[in-house]
Write a structure and sequence with these properties.
- This protein has 650 residues and is α/β, with parallel strands linked by helices.
- It is built from 21 helices and 22 strands.
- The strands form 5 sheets. It has an 8-stranded antiparallel β-sheet, with helices on one face.
- β5 and β6 form a beta hairpin.
Length: 650
C-alpha cells in the first residue's frame, strides 16, 4: 500500500466547481472490495415490523486498514430511491473482526434490473457498485465494489442530491431510470460550470415536463426556495396579455423562471417582444430560465426564434417520456410549488365533490367499523369548529388535528393516513392534502447533527399535508449505551406539534402498548395528540374478502373447491395469530408470494402447456392453495451474525 492525496469536497451545498479546490488529506490506497449479498426472509430473521424484505451483506476485513472506525452501506433502487441502510461501528479497544455483517431490512421491494450500492468508510462515501440483486432467497452473490471516485455522477448523487427534500418526487412522478441518471449527470456538469448552461429546456409529455421543470429542476436551482421561483406562459407575453415592461421588473428579483411553451402563434407584436425577451435572457445576471412544453412546441420555438434555438442543445435539454396512467398507479398531480405570475390557482370545477370521494374510499375499505365511526365524528367536530370560527363565535380555538393510530401490522393504517390528508384538505384544513410516509430509518440520521437536518427537510415536505410515522415507538430506545438519535426526532417534532395552525397533521402509528411507552417517554408528547383511533384486527371473513379483492384485481378466478380451501387456510391462520400476525399484509403475501407463485410453477412446468389458454392462466386450483400454505409456513431462517449498530436501522 502507498500513500496518496485524497481529493475531499468542501461542505455540502458548496457548488461543485469548488470541488476541484482540494483539501489535502493522507489516505491509504485501497483496492476494489468484494461484498457478498443475499436476499432473506424478514419474518424468519426477526426484522422490524415494517420490513417487507431483508438483504444480508458480508464484507471481509482483510483489505481494510487498522484505523477503520465505522463502515456503513446504503442501497438505492434503479430509480435512485433508498432501499435500505445499515452501519457497523468498531467497539473501542477491540480488534477488527474477520468479517462484518450488515442487515438491511426495508419497507420497499428489493426489485428492479439493478441497484446502486454505496459503502461509506469512516463517514465518507468511498466505494460503489451497480449490480443486480439476487433473484432467489438464500443465495449468496459476490459484488465487486470500485472506488467511488471513478464514478463522478454517483459521487455527485450521494454528496449533493440524495438528501434533497425534493428527491422523492422523482418516484412520485414515475420518471424512468434513464431520465433520473440524465438528471444527475447534467446537474453535475451544470454545477461544475453554470456559465455554459445558462438556461434549460424540458421537452416531452406536457404534464410530466411541467412536473419535472417546476418540482425538480426549479427546486434544485433555487436552493429549495419557492418564493425565488416564478412561472408564466410564454404566449401570455407574446400576445400582450402580460405587459413585458412591467413583467421584466418583477422577474428580475427571481432566481428561476419556469416558462410554459405552448404552440407559438406568430404575430408582429409577438416578434418584437420575443426579441426583447431573448436579449434579456442573454444578459448577465438574468435568472435561470427553464422552458418546458411538448416536443412540437419547443421545435416551433426553435424555428421562430433563432437566438433561443442557439441555447437548445443536447446538454441543456431533458426529454421526458409520457407516463401512462393505470388504475393502480394514477398520475400524481402537480403540487403548487411555485406560483404563477398573474393569478392564483383556483379550485377546479368538480373539486367540491372530492369530499364525498374521499369518504367513499374510506367507506369502501373492508372492516374497520370502529375506525370509520370515530374518524367521521372527528370530521364533523372539525367542520363544526370551523363554522363557529367563520361566524366569529370561537376565535381562540386552534387548528391542531394530530393523531395516533393504535393497531397491529397490516390493519390499514397507512391507507387511512392517506385518506385523512384528502378529507382534511377538502374541509379546507390542509392546503394540499398529500401524505409523507416515513419510519425510523427515514428520520434518524447517521451521525450527530444529521437527524436535525433530515427532520427539517421532511417537515418541509409534509407542510400542507400529513406526516405519517409508522412504528413510531421505535424512536424510543431502552439501550442506554447506544447513541439513540430517535429522541432527536421527537424533540424536532415538538415545536411543530405546538403550533396552533401548523398546516400539517402528524400521525404516529404502532402497537397500543408500545405507543403508550413512547408517549410516556416525553411529558409534553401525549397532550399534543388530541385524536386517537383504534384499528381492530381483521376477522377471518374480512381477510377472505381482502384476498378475493386482490385476486379479482389481478383477474384470477377460484374454483369452488379452491375458494373453500382458501377460506379454511385463512380461518386456521387467524385462529393461531399472535401480536406479530400481519393481517392484510399476511393475506397479500399469501396471494402474491404463495398462491400466484404456486400457480405459475404448476402451469409453466406442465408438459405441453398452452400460454394462449386464458382460462388456464386465470383459474386457481386447490393444489395452488395447499402449496401456497406450505410455502408461507416453511420460509427459511438463515443464521445471521448480528453487527454492532449505533441506534438506527433502515
Amino acid at each position: 500500500m502507498g500513500v496518496v492525496l485524497l481529493l475531499s469536497p468542501r461542505e455540502a451545498g458548496t457548488p461543485v466547481h469548488n470541488f476541484y479546490f482540494f483539501t489535502l488529506t493522507s489516505f491509504v490506497v485501497m483496492n476494489n472490495l468484494t461484498l457478498r449479498i443475499m436476499r432473506s426472509w424478514d419474518e424468519a430473521s426477526n426484522g422490524p415490523e415494517y420490513a417487507r424484505n431483508l438483504l444480508i451483506a458480508n464484507l471481509p476485513t482483510d483489505s481494510l486498514p487498522d484505523y477503520t472506525r465505522e463502515l456503513s452501506i446504503r442501497v438505492y433502487s434503479e430509480l435512485y430511491q433508498l432501499l435500505g441502510t445499515d452501519v457497523w461501528q468498531k467497539p473501542n479497544g477491540r480488534k477488527m473482526p474477520r468479517k462484518i455483517s450488515f442487515r438491511l431490512p426495508s419497507n420497499r421491494d428489493w426489485s428492479g434490473a439493478c441497484c446502486h450500492l454505496f459503502l461509506y468508510f469512516n463517514g465518507r462515501p468511498r466505494w460503489y457498485a451497480s449490480c443486480s440483486l439476487p433473484g432467489d432467497y438464500g443465495e449468496w452473490e459476490k459484488i465487486v465494489l470500485e472506488p467511488l471516485a471513478d464514478h463522478p455522477d454517483e459521487l455527485f448523487f450521494v454528496e449533493h442530491l440524495c438528501h434533497q427534500s425534493w428527491w422523492y418526487q422523482l418516484e412520485q412522478g414515475r420518471f424512468p431510470a434513464t431520465t433520473i441518471h440524465d438528471l444527475i449527470a447534467k446537474l453535475r456538469l451544470r454545477t461544475t460550470n453554470p456559465t455554459l448552461w445558462p438556461h434549460l429546456f424540458v421537452a416531452g409529455d406536457e404534464a410530466q415536463a411541467d412536473l419535472f421543470a417546476a418540482n425538480v429542476l426549479a427546486t434544485y436551482l433555487s436552493g429549495n426556495t419557492p418564493p425565488a421561483c416564478c412561472r408564466f406562459a410564454l404566449n401570455d407575453l407574446l400576445s400582450g396579455e402580460l405587459n413585458w415592461w412591467v413583467t421584466k421588473d418583477y422577474l428580475a428579483d427571481m432566481k428561476v423562471l419556469i416558462v410554459q411553451v405552448d404552440p407559438i402563434r406568430p404575430n408582429k407584436q409577438g416578434e418584437n417582444i420575443l426579441t426583447f425577451l431573448t436579449d434579456w435572457f442573454k444578459a448577465p445576471g438574468t435568472p435561470t430560465c427553464i422552458f418546458h412544453g411538448s416536443s412540437d412546441s419547443l421545435d416551433r420555438l426553435k424555428r421562430w426564434a433563432d437566438d433561443i434555438s442557439e441555447l437548445i442543445e443536447e446538454k441543456t435539454t431533458f426529454d421526458i417520456p409520457a407516463t401512462r396512467d393505470t388504475p393502480d398507479e394514477p398520475h400524481i398531480p402537480l403540487p403548487d410549488v411555485v406560483g404563477y405570475l398573474d393569478f392564483r390557482l383556483h379550485k377546479k370545477e368538480g373539486e367540491a365533490q372530492k369530499t364525498s370521494e374521499a369518504n367513499q374510499k374510506l367507506e369502501s375499505l373492508i372492516g374497520l367499523d370502529r375506525l370509520k365511526t370515530d374518524l367521521h365524528e372527528a370530521s364533523l367536530l372539525a367542520r363544526f369548529t370551523q363554522a363557529r370560527k367563520r361566524l366569529g363565535i370561537d376565535t381562540d380555538s386552534d387548528n391542531r388535528y394530530h393523531m395516533i393510530f393504535y393497531g397491529n401490522p397490516g390493519t390499514g393504517k397507512t391507507t387511512v393516513a392517506r385518506l385523512v390528508g384528502e378529507i382534511y384538505h377538502d374541509m379546507g384544513l390542509l392546503s394540499s392534502g398529500h401524505t409523507v410516509e416515513v419510519c425510523r430509518s427515514g428520520l434518524v440520521g447517521e451521525y450527530i447533527g444529521h437527524t436535525e437536518s433530515r427532520m427539517k427537510e421532511i417537515l418541509e415536505q409534509a407542510r400542507g399535508g400529513v406526516l405519517f410515522i409508522d412504528e413510531a415507538y421505535t424512536l424510543v430506545s431502552h439501550n442506554r449505551e447506544s447513541n439513540d438519535f430517535g429522541k432527536e426526532v421527537i424533540h424536532a417534532l415538538l415545536p411543530v406539534l405546538s403550533e396552533p395552525n401548523p398546516d400539517m397533521i402528524v400521525i404516529l402509528a404502532g402497537y397500543e402498548e408500545k405507543m403508550q411507552t413512547l408517549l410516556r417517554s416525553n411529558p409534553g408528547l401525549k397532550e399534543r395528540f388530541p385524536l386517537k383511533f383504534y384499528f381492530d384486527d381483521y376477522s377471518a371473513d374480512e381477510l377472505y374478502e381482502i384476498a378475493l379483492r386482490l385476486l379479482h384485481k389481478r383477474k384470477f378466478v377460484l374454483t369452488c373447491e379452491a375458494g373453500l380451501r382458501l377460506k379454511k387456510v385463512i380461518a386456521q391462520a387467524t385462529a393461531q395469530r399472535d401480536e406479530n400476525f400481519g393481517n392484510g399484509r399476511w393475506v397479500h403475501n399469501l396471494v402474491e408470494q404463495g398462491i400466484v407463485k404456486s400457480m405459475a410453477r404448476r402451469i409453466m412446468t406442465r408438459p405441453g402447456h398452452d400460454c394462449s389458454d386464458r382460462a388456464l392462466l386465470c383459474t386457481i386450483e386447490p393444489v395452488d392453495i395447499d402449496e401456497a400454505e406450505e410455502r408461507i409456513s416453511i420460509a427459511p431462517a438463515p443464521n445471521i451474525p448480528q453487527p454492532i449498530h449505533i441506534g438506527f436501522r433502515a
